[in-house]
């Protein structure tokens, strides 16, 4: 680690740990922020409208663009026939003969796949002309579900693969066979998580300008990283990285992971600009977002736990089948692989077997959605643990506690190679009991049950990893290939920050992050202000990326909760370095040793002789305007520092498939009490609480806000959000009227608690936080609803658990309305 | 295709009902725009492509609520929020306020109008069952004609009404019978996954109770049927019976809805039918409690 502890102790902690009001909010809440569509565009910009396949699976026989081209104002109508002359397939993370282009070539493989792009002087003209493009389709048989895709003789999404399975692999750690032989009991569960998304308010957008003179393609886009994918786009567009400039504005109107998937459109719109020679702007519509952007995987999981007679978890076996839509695009198979390191959650389980199968279907391709793949894992795992408790007659919390990794075990290496930094899960659970008032809640439930009401309680826990170590995707590559000397392993997840003091003394921090509301400006300013002894308002923080002007790396961006752990650490390291530089310059000007210099309220002075001092303004002025002075001559006193922070545990994957996919591993415990309406199956959340281990927060207010949002998303995901399509693969709910997203009016306020355990891997001990509720929320709600429906022996096996599913699976077996008459008010 | 811009159209702002009617009669493909909450959505998706829009939103007085004897006239451009907060309506036809307050969200309620809502005739719309249960009349006007039609005859099916292309809804007429010593109660209930969503089932119940017995029972259902329907059998079966929870429960269970029930990804016909029974029971009970002062 790069930060010396002696310096750490000298830090003034003034603004660290304070719920400082967010600096960006005035701009964001008064309509003054500039989002992608608000940016001014280059002269001569044309507007793109994407024509999409109405069929989930069809041969494209002919595309007639003649009438469309004739519409005045239309510059071009481009199809794969034209665009493939300037474009190669987008590289995939797994080895496959599939060629993934951002536009359909001979076949459309999902309803919504781009087929042609109309480029015109205005959006309205392009839309007029798009209706005049005639495509001759020959509809093909559709596989829209995992079951159909895997059936014997199923139509193939990709003929070249030979089946709909594009990747299949079993990972084994420890001795699973033995564990299951020794087991006193084996408990299993099945869960299906349907495809869903967490749509942002601002849709995708790209402005691409290809400049012939310099041969540089510049793109303004609301892409959130990782910039590995900007490399993938450059590759597809046959550009070297010095000829591909990506500019992400400082404000992005929400993402929840979705905006990683802007990258195929960066390739598509970029290719259009290269081909036509004019700047091209594309803003996605809301419906397009539902049919053409991205989604989370549909997953079938079967989990089995081997238990000792005392309830110890001896081994875990999982069979996972993920439907990742029409193309296995990068970073798939991440839905599974990103979680391999922490597959066993907070439990000590040394024998683990994971069998994964990846299936293509004629549906929208997937990518990371908030808490990438972890809701998919946490829901069945916690359902399994709850069932284990029931079957062995244990209290569910006690059984968990018994199997938790203990505080003395940290840093703890999991069976699959994850290196957990720190934690005290037992203490966090105690905190959860307290803030939720578990005893009170139990009494309340008993009382309500006596009134005949269907109420229940559920608790779920989980590991909240943060930062993405690219190494995890190497697990998708066969060991034979990884063994070769020519193979280049991947690893790392670094974050950069540049801190500069301007000639007039103002402080500017440049991040390589793409925040979407996370408050990076405030947090970075708090931290720098604390180290340099100024006010947060005096620190200007610039976010967003410009690959020609910002120090960036392939992991730059804002995803995988990486700012709270790595981003903050980079900022902190840069600030400490800057303080050192100031102290050195001051020591020379004052003629004392650098160790003797302290900084307070904008003044640097000698500890031993307090009358020897210089204001930081004069100091900075001297460095800029008089570097040739006798005192400074010859030294390097430039007041600009760039620091890149990485965590040392982020190494490459091993040949026995162990990998540490994340840098820090927080913990979350969630408790929920619910009531199920006996007549309708509707669920109301009576009480909800989460305890988070973020390692400590720079701004606890921001952490709490982010978690409130996550808890509400979790409730929506658990209870009603899913992307529905019919048998022919037609997506059905593609507006906010049909795919409901909670608004401020619908929000509930979860009870929030913190049980921080500092990470030894980051200088301030912080870990990433805020995706936790997206995993434990649905799990706790599932368990609570099963508890509420105990009379029905309910086994909830499909997410979301909609009112209709609950009614038709369980309640309808009973007579209607026993309670309809005894209640005078609607739920 | 996934569009954002409406096709080209002409826009004309009418300053009187007469002028609006004249404009409507003048050119084919002319459409009225009121709050735009349904029409603009359709135009931006290019599902509607009117050649000319006649804006009636600025006609003064067209959104007024006025007394007519014991009853009320509600002007076509009266917004949902105005209706929801109107004291006059609350005093006489509180069920209409209840329905207006449950339309979408505050922004939609501030722009959307009762005339636009019923003319649009979304089967999941809130007003259709309420106006049908209230036995409201709808006044239509065109350049050459005026007519008044009962709400029960106004709606023909999903997104279709008796309105001719050159006709305008001018107002909704609500009459009130003199009280005959009964106590009245009402209830509108909307069933949806989240409160701001369109309904999968709507129920409007109006009851009159005398000496603990049903003197009058009107229940209208919406959203699960192509057009609103009065549950006449249910009313008859309860008439004269004690207004008890048990009677209500039994009658609701016996509800016959026929085979026209809408079935889609939001809710199956079976579930909608079940919810209708639950909601009818609940709303009748609420109406009875309101009538008897239990609530
Ligand atoms: C997000 C959202 C949620 C909603 N939720 C609900 C809900 O829960 N329940 C519900 O009932 N509704 C809901 N609505 C629809 C809402 O009620 C609309 O306001 C209403 O359907 C249209 O009213 P408008 O004045 O905006 O009409 P416009 O959109 O202007 O017009 C709609 C149609 O009616 C015609 N029209 C308008 N006025 C007249 C007139 N006076 N005479 C003849 N034709 C006319 C127009 O030509 C057009 O065809 C929702 C709408 C939105 C956008």
Tell me what you see in this structure.
The complex is a heterodimer of chains A (827) and B (295). With 827 residues, chain A is of the alpha+beta class. Chain A folds into 3 domains: 5-31 and 494-645, Aldehyde Oxidoreductase, domain 4, CATH 3.30.365; 34-370, Aldehyde Oxidoreductase, domain 3 (Alpha-Beta Complex); 373-467 and 663-815, 2-Layer Sandwich (Aldehyde Oxidoreductase, domain 4), CATH 3.30.365. Chain A has an 8-stranded mixed sheet with strand order 3-5-1-12-9-10-11-22. Chain A is globular, with a radius of gyration of 28 Å. Chain B is α+β, with helices and mostly antiparallel strands. Chain B has 2 domains: 7-56 and 63-177, Uridine Diphospho-n-acetylenolpyruvylglucosamine Reductase, domain 3 (2-Layer Sandwich), CATH 3.30.465; 183-292, 2-Layer Sandwich (Enolase-like, domain 1). Chain B is 34% helix and 25% strand. Chain B has helices at residues 17-26, 39-44, 80-85, 87-92, 94-101, 106-111, 114-120, 127-133, 151-154, 232-238, 245-253, 269-292; strands at residues 10-13, 30-33, 52-55, 65-68, 71-75, 137-141, 146-150, 155-157, 160-161, 168-174, 183-191, 201-210, 213-222, 229-230. A 5-stranded antiparallel sheet of chain B has the order 4-5-10-6-7. A 4-stranded antiparallel sheet of chain B has the order 11-12-13-14. Chain B has a 3-stranded parallel sheet with strand order 1-3-2, covered by helices on one side. The model of chain B has no long low-confidence stretch (mean pLDDT 96). Chains A and B meet through strand 1, helix 5, helix 10 and helix 22 of A and helix 11 and helix 12 of B. Bound molecules: flavin-adenine dinucleotide (FAD). Residues 31-39, 56, 76, 103-104, 108, 111-113, 115-117, 119-120, 122, 125-126, 163, 168-169, 198 of chain B line the site of flavin-adenine dinucleotide (FAD). Flavin-adenine dinucleotide binds at residues 31-39, 56, 76, 103-104, 108, 111-113, 115-117, 119-120, 122, 125-126, 163, 168-169, 198 of chain B.
């Amino acid at each position: 680690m790069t930060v010396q502890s002696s310096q750490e102790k000298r830090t003034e902690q003034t603004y660290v740990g304070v719920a400082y009001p967010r600096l960006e909010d005035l701009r964001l809440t008064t309509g003054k922020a500039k989002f992608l569509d608000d940016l001014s565009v280059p002269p001569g910009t044309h507007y793109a409208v994407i024509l999409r396949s109405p069929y989930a699976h069809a041969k494209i026989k002919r595309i007639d663009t003649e009438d469309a081209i004739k519409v005045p104002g239309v510059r071009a109508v481009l199809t794969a026939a034209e665009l493939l002359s300037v474009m190669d397939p987008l590289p995939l993370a797994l080895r496959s003969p599939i060629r993934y282009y951002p536009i359909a070539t001979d076949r459309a493989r999902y309803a919504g796949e781009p087929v042609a792009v109309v480029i015109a002087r205005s959006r309205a003209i392009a839309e007029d002309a798009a209706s005049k493009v005639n495509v001759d389709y020959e509809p093909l048989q559709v596989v829209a579900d995992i079951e159909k895709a895997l059936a014997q003789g199923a139509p193939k999404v990709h003929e070249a693969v030979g089946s709909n399975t594009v990747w299949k692999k079993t990972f084994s750690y420890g001795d699973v066979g033995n564990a299951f032989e020794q087991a006193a009991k084996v408990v299993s569960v099945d869960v299906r998580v349907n495809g869903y998304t967490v749509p942002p308010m601002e849709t995708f957008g790209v402005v691409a300008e290809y400049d012939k003179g310099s041969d540089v393609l510049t793109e303004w886009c609301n892409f959130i990283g990782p910039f590995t994918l900007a490399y993938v786009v450059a590759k597809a567009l046959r550009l070297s990285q010095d000829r591909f400039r990506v500019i992400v504005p400082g404000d992005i109107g929400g993402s929840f992971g979705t905006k990683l998937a802007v990258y195929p459109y960066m390739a598509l719109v970029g290719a259009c600009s290269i081909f036509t020679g004019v700047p091209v702007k594309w803003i996605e519509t809301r419906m397009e977002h539902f049919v053409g952007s991205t989604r989370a995987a549909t997953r079938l999981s079967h989990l089995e736990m081997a238990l000792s007679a005392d309830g110890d978890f001896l081994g875990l076996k999982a069979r996972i089948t993920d439907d990742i839509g029409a193309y296995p695009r990068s970073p798939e198979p991440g839905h599974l692989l990103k979680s391999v390191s922490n597959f066993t959650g907070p439990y000590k389980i040394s024998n683990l077997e994971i069998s994964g199968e990846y299936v293509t279907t004629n549906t929208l391709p997937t990518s990371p959605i908030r808490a990438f793949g972890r809701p998919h894992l946490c829901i069945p795992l916690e359902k399994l643990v709850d069932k284990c408790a029931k079957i062995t007659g244990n209290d569910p919390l006690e059984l968990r506690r018994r199997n938790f990794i203990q505080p003395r075990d940290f840093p703890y290496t999991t069976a699959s190679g994850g290196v957990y930094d720190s934690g005290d899960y037992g203490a966090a659970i105690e905190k959860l009991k307290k803030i939720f008032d578990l005893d009170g809640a139990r009494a309340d439930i008993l009382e309500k049950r006596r009134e005949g009401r269907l109420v229940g309680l559920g608790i779920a826990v989980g590991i909240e990893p943060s930062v993405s170590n690219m190494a995890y995707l190497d697990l998708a590559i066969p060991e034979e290939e990884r063994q070769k000397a020519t193979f280049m392993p991947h690893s790392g997840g670094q974050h950069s920050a540049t801190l500069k003091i301007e000639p007039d003394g103002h402080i500017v921090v440049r991040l390589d992050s793409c925040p979407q509301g996370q408050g990076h400006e405030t947090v970075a300013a708090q931290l720098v202000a604390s180290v340099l002894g100024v006010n947060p308002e005096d620190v200007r923080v610039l976010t967003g990326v410009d690959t020609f002007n910002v120090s960036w790396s392939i992991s730059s961006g804002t995803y995988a909760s990486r700012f709270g752990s790595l981003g903050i650490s980079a900022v902190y390291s840069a600030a400490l370095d800057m303080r050192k530089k100031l102290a050195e310059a001051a020591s020379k000007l004052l003629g004392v040793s650098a160790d003797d210099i302290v900084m307070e309220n904008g003044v640097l002075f000698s500890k031993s002789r307090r009358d020897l001092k210089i204001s930081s303004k004069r100091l900075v002025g001297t460095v800029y305007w008089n570097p040739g002075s006798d005192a400074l001559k010859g030294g390097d006193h430039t007041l600009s520092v760039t620091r890149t922070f990485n965590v040392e545990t982020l190494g490459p994957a091993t040949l026995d498939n162990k990998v540490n996919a994340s840098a820090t591993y927080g913990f979350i415990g969630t408790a929920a009490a619910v009531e199920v309406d006996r007549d309708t199956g509707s669920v109301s959340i009576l009480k909800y609480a989460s305890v988070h281990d973020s390692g400590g927060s720079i701004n606890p207010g921001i952490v709490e806000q982010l978690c409130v949002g996550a808890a509400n998303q979790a409730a929506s995901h658990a209870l009603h959000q899913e992307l529905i399509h019919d048998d022919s693969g037609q997506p059905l709910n593609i507006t906010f009227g049909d795919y409901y997203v909670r608004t401020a009016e619908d929000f509930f306020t979860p009870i929030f608690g913190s049980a921080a355990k500092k990470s030894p891997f980051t200088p301030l001990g912080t870990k990433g936080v805020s995706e936790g509720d997206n995993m434990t929320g649905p799990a706790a709600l599932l368990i609570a609803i099963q508890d509420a429906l105990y009379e029905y022996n309910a086994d909830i096996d499909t997410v979301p658990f909609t009112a209709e599913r609950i009614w038709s699976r369980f309640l309808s077996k009973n007579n209607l309305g026993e309670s309809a008459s005894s209640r005078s008010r609607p739920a | 295709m996934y569009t954002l811009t409406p096709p080209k159209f002409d826009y004309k702002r009418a300053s009187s009902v007469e002028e609006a009617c004249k404009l409507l009669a003048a050119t084919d493909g002319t459409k009225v725009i009121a709050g735009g909450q349904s029409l603009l959505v359709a135009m931006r998706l290019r599902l509607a492509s009117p050649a000319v829009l006649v804006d009636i939103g600025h006609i003064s007085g067209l959104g007024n609520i006025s007394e007519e004897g014991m009853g009320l006239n509600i002007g076509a451009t009266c917004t949902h929020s105005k209706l929801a907060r109107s004291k006059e309506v609350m005093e006489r036809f509180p069920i209409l306020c209840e329905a207006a307050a449950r339309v979408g969200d505050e922004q939609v309620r501030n722009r959307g109008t009762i005339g636009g809502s019923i003319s649009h005739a979304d089967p999941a719309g809130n007003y259709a069952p309420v106006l049908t249960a209230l036995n409201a009349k709808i006044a239509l006007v065109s350049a050459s004609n005026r007519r008044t039609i009962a709400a029960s005859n106004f709606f023909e099916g999903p997104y279709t009404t008796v309105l001719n292309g050159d006709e305008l809804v001018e107002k909704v007429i609500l009459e009130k019978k003199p009280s005959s010593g009964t106590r009245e109660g009402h209830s509108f209930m909307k069933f949806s996954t989240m409160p701001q969503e369109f309904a999968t089932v709507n129920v409007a119940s109006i009851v009159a109770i005398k000496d603990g017995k049903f003197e009058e029972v009107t229940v209208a259902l919406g959203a699960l049927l192509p057009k609103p329907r009065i549950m006449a059998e249910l009313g008859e079966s309860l008439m004269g019976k004690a207004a008890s929870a048990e009677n209500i429960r039994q009658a609701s269970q016996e509800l016959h809805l026929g085979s026209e029930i809408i079935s889609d990804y939001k809710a199956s016909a079976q579930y909608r039918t079940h919810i209708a029974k639950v909601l009818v029971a609940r709303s009748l009970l609420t109406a009875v409690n309101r009538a008897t002062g239990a609530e």
